[in-house]
Amino acid sequence: MRRFTLYDTRTRDVRVFAPIAPPRVGLYVCGLTPYAPAHIGHGRTFVFFDVVARALRRWGYRLFYVQNVTNLDDKLIERAAEEGVDPLGLAEQHFAEYRRSMDALGVRSVDYYPFATDYVPEILQQIHALLDKGFAYVADDGSVYFSVAKFSDYGKLSGQRVESLKPGARLEVDPRKRSPEDFVIWKATTPGEPSWESPWGPGRPGWHIEDTAMILRLLGERCDLHGAGLDLIFPHHEAEVALAEATTGAAPFSNFWIHSGMLLMDEEKMSKSIGNVLSLTETIASVGAGPLRFYYLNAHYRSPLTFLPGKSLEEAGEAYARLTVVSDRIGEILERDGSDRPGAEIPDPLAEEAEDLVERLDATLADDFNTREAIALLFGWTRRLAEELPRLEGYSGDALEELASPYRWGEEVLGLFSRPASGASGAVASVVAVALDARSRARARGDYAEADRIRDELHGAGVELEDDAGGTRWRARRTP
């Protein structure tokens, strides 16, 4: 297992990662509340944690990655009422769209997506334990609240002091609470809302407790790594710490906390409640998954990422095209001829550079998941191999695979450099060969209009042509 460091929100320091029971690692990430379509701010968070999961598996850890789904809360109930639909059905609809977007972005590392409503028995069990230990109380309407004053370490994750919190600002004003900082863990429902029976009357889970109940059930009393966007540190993750540690007595609840920075729209947090959002599905369709994923990762995960409409993604697309030009060319040759193609071997110094670079890439990412610096190293490799472009056709398949090894790392760990599925490549190559032959004959007889028509037809089908003194080369455009 590779040793790596990361910034731990709890200790406010960069620490060497150490699993509780190596080589097993439990990763829990707070996922979507699907009351509306996912936006590109969500994309940044979940692409980053996909890289974390990919890296851990590459480095030899046995990872179990859980990302929850809050499929019932006030916002879902309100939005469903506006649209005249069932809130649980609305959550299913938006979550299915989210999964399609994640699949397009190459985010397939999550092992399990638990839905909050599937864990009501575990939530009720935890509430019973908190009541028995005196950490919670039942209000007159049957709601159950956690008593923050009973947990002396409240605030240790975020650094917030209870006495500094002002009712009406950071705290919900609720006459059912004994103290303004207390929070609901079982919410009495009104007629018409989805509800479950409990000893205190019909109700539904509070937001904070659903995550702790899932983690205690799926990962145990303590998890190795817990994360989400920076905006969830307080009050959500702070409340999770209090709930879990009050229930079990085991501390710390999470061995490490990792939080990604916000994606800002014109210097303001992107939020569905504010309305300054771009749909993740529509953005992938318009710019492609590769450029969008590159855009997210070409910044350190803890840094805020400011999105400039009409500029940020255009610049990312241009940069991504420059980064991938050599890897694309190597891929085209290997797809055309196979990895066993004959040819020259690369010089030993160049082979050593490729091998050393892969190690440097791993080392760079092992330093607090520095994807930006890893991408800079890959740009350097592309500039280095630009000198080899005229000679690529002369190299053997093994030699080309050696040259591509840093790009293979980028595909495996960063999720970049993906090409169209190879299963169709043979058929595509055969069709393109016929079209190029027809275009060559048209040009030979001076029928340039027909040659241009064939070129345009191929372009419309996602095939780009490149004419030079050596003939015509083609490549398939990346799929979104």
Textual characterization of the structure:
The protein is 45% helix and 14% strand. The protein has a four-stranded parallel beta sheet, with helices on one face. It has three domains: 221 residues, Rossmann fold; 108 residues; 54 residues, no CATH class. By secondary structure, it is of the alpha/beta class. The protein contains 14 helices and 15 strands. Strand 3, helix 1 and strand 4 form a beta-alpha-beta unit.
How many E-type strands? 15
Assign the CATH class of the largest domain: Alpha Beta
* Oligomer kind: single chain
Order of helices and strands: EEEHEHHHEEEEHEHEEEHHEHHHHHHEE
What radius of gyration results from the CA coordinates? 27 Å
Beta-strand fraction estimate: 5-15%
User: How much helical structure, as a percent, in the residues?
Assistant: 40-55%
Mean pLDDT: 91
Number of helical regions: 14
CATH architecture of the largest domain: 3-Layer(aba) Sandwich
Low-confidence stretches: 421-427
Which class do the helix and strand fractions yield?
alpha/beta
What count of domains describes the coordinates? 3
Q: How would you sum up the major sheet?
A: 4 strands, parallel
| Fold-level CATH name of the largest domain | Rossmann fold
The backbone outline, from C-alpha atoms, is elongated
| CATH 4th-level superfamily of the largest domain | HUPs
**Strand ordering within the main sheet:** 4-3-9-10
Termini distance? 34 Å
